[in-house]
Amino acid sequence: MKKLILGSFALLMFSASMLIFQISCKKSAEAESPMPAVPVQINKVAFTRYSQNGGTEICVMNYDGTGLVKVPVQLGANQSITDEVRLSPDGRKVFFVLYTPGTNETKKEDIYSCDIDGKNQKKIYGMPDGGGNTILGGAY
């Protein structure tokens, strides 16, 4: 009889400890930050077009062709925009490639980014001199 009472007491204590453990795990799981939201679809497309002065410019518009906006990009001496242009997943930044001509050893295609309004332009990748072509992939 004593073993039966001790066994029952041990099972009761084990059950109580499991219940306390589950409650504490639930509270810590609720305290964790929620999963990040699915990125909002931006429904915009970025592209390059030839401007009236013979250069290339970056434009952004809605998927239906409305809301066309030119992104003002600052070019250095002899630099030009290649056909490589992408939007960030949130639609706030534009990524593009600037070509700087030169000899086979000095020509470059560097990757730049800027806000959709052309502000905060900065080089994010500097190709080694004579490094070949730079082709942008998708932004994730």
UniProtKB/TrEMBL annotation:
Q: Which domain of life is it from?
A: Bacteria
| Protein name according to UniProt | WD40-like Beta Propeller Repeat
